[in-house]
Specification:
240 residues; mainly alpha; two-stranded antiparallel sheet
C-alpha cells in the first residue's frame, strides 16, 4: 500500500466502517470506502451536479409530497439493506436476504440522491439574496436524469473492469467533501450573519473556503476519534 493510499484509508476511517467484505477490491486491496458509502457519496455528487446545472439551480423549496415520499423510500431501502447487512455480521444473526456489494452500492446511490435533493434547497435558502421559491424537483419525472446517470455508473462498476471501482471511489470522495463543504458553508454564513445576502458565487468564496477547511478538520477529527476508540476501548475479543 502506498503512503497516499494509507493516508486516504486513515482519513476515511471515521466516516466508513471499512469492512473488507463490504468493499470493492482493486489490485488485492479493499478500497477505503465500503460499497454502501461509495454509493451514497456518488449519489450525493450526481444529485448536486444535476440540480446545479438545471434551470432551478437556486431553488429553495422542498419537493412536493409525492417526490418526498419516493425520496423517503430511497432512504428506507438504504436503511433496510444496511440493517440486513449488519445482522449477517452477528453470530447466528437473522437476515432477510443475502447481502451483496451490488445492493450496497445501488441502495447507497438512491440514498445519496435523496440527501442531495434535500441539501440543495437548504443551501440555496441560506445563501442567496433572491433564491428561486420553487422546488428543485416538481415531479417524479424530474428524478429521471440523475437516476439514469446513476444507473449507468452502477452498470459500469458492476460489469466493467475492477479499475472502474477506483473511479467510483474518487467520485465518492469528491461527493463527500462537496456535501460537507456546502453544509458547513451554510453554517458559516449563519455564524457570520451573512445569510440570504449573496447575489453571485464570488460573494460566497469565504464561506465556501471556511466550509471546505471545516470539512477536512471534521474528517480528520472523526478519524482520530474512531482510531482512539478502536485502540483504547475495543480490546481483542470484545466483540467475539
Amino acid at each position: 500500500m502506498t503512503i497516499a493510499a494509507a493516508v486516504f484509508r486513515w482519513l476515511l476511517s471515521g466516516v466508513c466502517g471499512q469492512i473488507p467484505a463490504h468493499s470493492f477490491v482493486v489490485h488485492g486491496e479493499a478500497l477505503p470506502l465500503c460499497a454502501r458509502c461509495t454509493g451514497t457519496h456518488v449519489g450525493i455528487l450526481v444529485g448536486l451536479l444535476t440540480w446545479r446545472l438545471s434551470r432551478k439551480s437556486r431553488s429553495s423549496a422542498l419537493p412536493p409530497l409525492r417526490v418526498v415520499v419516493v425520496l423517503a423510500a430511497f432512504i428506507g431501502a438504504w436503511a433496510l439493506d444496511g440493517l440486513n447487512s449488519f445482522l449477517t455480521l452477528l453470530r447466528d444473526g437473522p437476515s432477510l436476504y443475502a447481502p451483496s456489494n451490488a445492493l450496497r452500492l445501488s441502495t447507497g446511490m438512491l440514498n445519496g440522491l435523496a440527501l442531495a435533493t434535500l441539501v440543495h434547497p437548504l443551501f440555496n435558502f441560506v445563501a442567496w439574496d433572491e433564491p428561486d421559491q420553487g422546488p428543485t424537483v416538481s415531479g417524479l419525472r424530474g428524478l429521471m436524469p440523475p437516476l439514469a446517470l446513476l444507473a449507468t455508473l452502477l452498470a459500469l462498476a458492476l460489469l466493467g473492469p475492477p479499475i472502474g471501482h477506483r473511479g467510483l471511489f474518487i467520485i465518492a470522495s469528491i461527493g463527500l467533501i462537496t456535501s460537507l463543504t456546502l453544509v458547513n458553508a451554510a453554517g458559516a454564513l449563519v455564524l457570520l450573519h451573512r445569510e440570504q445576502r449573496a447575489r453571485r458565487w464570488r460573494e460566497l468564496l469565504l464561506p465556501l473556503v471556511l466550509g471546505f477547511l471545516a470539512s477536512l478538520a471534521e474528517v480528520a477529527a472523526l478519524a482520530l476519534l474512531t482510531n482512539w476508540i478502536r485502540s483504547g476501548w475495543l480490546k481483542p475479543g470484545l466483540l467475539g
